[in-house]
Each structure stands twice: as structure tokens, then as C-alpha cells.
Amino acid sequence: MEFGPGPRLLALLVGLLAFAYAPTVQAQATSTESVSISAVVADTTPAPSNPSVEFHGIAAPGAVVTVLRGGAQVGSITAGGDASFTVALVNQPVGQQSYDIQASDATGHSLAPVTFALNLTAGTNTIISGIFLGPSIGVDKPAVKLGQFLTVSGTTAPSSAVTLTVSSETPTSFTVSSDGLGRWSKLVNSQEIGVGTHTATARALLGGNQVSAQSATVTFAVNPLEQCDGKKTADLNCDAAVNLTDFSILLYFWQQTTPSNGRADINGDGRVDVVDFSIMLYQWTA
Questions:
Q1: Best exposed site among 66, 210, 247, 255 by fewest CB in 10 Å?
Q2: Residues 87, 99: contact at Cβ < 8 Å?
Q3: Within 13 Å, how many C-alpha atoms sit on residue 56's CB side?
Q4: Exposed/middle/buried for 12, CB within 10 Å: 0-12, 13-18, 19+?
Q5: CATH number among 2.60.120, 2.130.10, 3.30.420, 1.10.1330, domain 226-282
Q6: Do 226-282 and 138-223 have the same topology in CATH?
Q7: pLDDT recorded at residue 259
Q8: Largest Cα span, the chain
Q9: Above pLDDT 90, what percent of the chain?
Q10: 41 burial via Cβ count (<10 Å: 0-12, 13-18, 19+)
Q11: Which residues contact 71 (CB under 8 A, 6 or more apart)?
């Protein structure tokens, strides 16, 4: 009779002991590669825009207004019927800039330009208002003889008061009004300003408080009638007598305005009429 575990039980115990005392094996994962992740965050702040400039002002009705920067044209517009204009310029360069505002009227005469020196900063809009260009100005003849008339004229804002200043030994000023189209003119008697070379300028006043820049300067001459120096005003042929010869000259220019012989308009009111005849009778010498 045998005691103890049987063969199967012994085999089971041996198997359990072998499992229990077997060495433990740990699995390890290794890697020689590294992973790098990067991200670019965009700046959402908007970049400053290029500066812009606006010019608001007065020229003359229908005048072509041109803006130049550094001598190169950068904008142009036609003034309205009230002579106002607006020129808006975008994408202008930053820093110190020089702008010239020029204009020419419907007759091709230039209005006096103005210049602005501006320091422009990115992202800004510079507004220049209150511009009032000087009137255009011209004369109908470069020279006249003493006693003759010449016309000085130009354009500016409608219904303006235009002051015309003529230089001479004593400067002489005349005031006229521009019409609804901005046209103005003054008939000047050369006897009022005397012999010599003269210059003339004009300036406009609109609405009692808007004063234009001064116009360009025009030059003209008043030449003497040497044989008439010191003669009576009614001595039209300057022969030292007031008689039928002068009367016939007066009749030749009768009712004319601005006669070619300025002496025929004896009182210088722009017309040969009965007033001149009465002066001739007063100075009559036979």
C-alpha cells in the first residue's frame, strides 16, 4: 500500500512551482526619433494705410483745377458753377510733400496758384479747406497812348467784389463786381494813371469774409502823346487851338465808346457825347 500523492498530482504541483518561480520579463518600447511641432500665429492688427489728402476751395466757374505733387500731376477736376472744387487724393507717400493747386478758366487764362507743404503720416487723412485761388487777369492791349483806354479783365467766383490795383507813382485802385459766371472787367482811362510802365493785380472778396489770394501780375505801358503835352483837353489834334478842326474830330467819334483817339472822350467817362461837346465849347478859342 502506497501513501502520498499520485503521479498526476505531482505533475500538477511541479508545473505550478515552475510558473511561480519563472523570471519576470518586462516589455519596454524605445524610440530614437523626436517629434517637433511648431505654429505661426498671425498678427491680426491691420497695417496702417497710406495717407490721403483732400483739397477744398474756390476757383472760377468751369475752371480746370489741377493738383501737382513735386511737379507731377496727381489729380484734376472741373470746378462747379459756383466755382467750388474738391480734389481727393488717396495712397499718398508719407513724409514731407509739396502740393501745387493750379487752375485755368474757360478762356485759358491761369488763376493764381497756391502751394502747400505737408508732412503726411501713415493712416491719416489731411483735409485742406478754405482755398481761394487768385483771380485770372489780363489786359486787352500791351500799350496805349495817353488818353486812350484799356480793359483789364478776368474771372473769379461769381458775385465777388474784385479790387484791381494799378501801380503808378501813386497806386490807383478800382472795385468792380463779377457777374454770375465769375467774369469781371474794368475799363481804365490811361489819363487816370499817367505815362509809364504799369503793373496791375486783382484780389476777390466773396460774401464779405472770404478773401482770395492775389492774382498774377500783368504789365502794360502808357505812352505819351508828346505833341499834346500841356494842351487843352478839347484840343483834339493838339495844334494849340480849339476850333472847327477839333469839332470835326469830335463828330467823327460821336457816340463811340473807347474811341481810338482817347482825347475825343474829353471827360474820360468812356463815351463821346454832349458832355464832351459842352467842354469843347467852354474851351473854344476860334
A1: 255
A2: no
A3: 6
A4: exposed
A5: 1.10.1330
A6: no
A7: 85
A8: 198
A9: 67
A10: exposed
A11: 100
- Evaluate whether 146 touches 222 at the Cβ level (below 8 Å): yes
Q: What is the sign of the dihedral through the CA atoms of 25, 31, 32 and 34?
A: negative
Query: What is the end-to-end Cα distance of the chain in Å, rounded?
Result: 198
Which amino acid type is present at position 6?
G
- Report the run of H or E that residue 163 belongs to, with start and end: strand 161-166
120 neighbors 97 (Cβ within 8 angstroms): yes
The fold of 52-131 is Immunoglobulin-like (2.60.40)
Domain boundaries in the chain? 52-131, 138-223, 226-282
Q: What CATH superfamily classification does 138-223 receive? A: Immunoglobulins (2.60.40.10)
Pull the grid cell for residue 31: 524610440
Say whether pLDDT at 180 is over 60: yes
- Name the grid cell of 69: 505733387
In this predicted structure, what is the pLDDT of residue 16? 46
Per residue in 71-124, pLDDT (tens digit) is 999 999 999 999 999 999 999 999 999 999 999 998 899 999 999 999 999 999
* Nearest one of 127, 185, 184, 128 to 157, comparing CA atoms: 184
Distances (CA, A) of 66 to 54, 79, 111, 153, 272: 13, 10, 11, 22, 45
Is pLDDT of 265 > 80?
yes
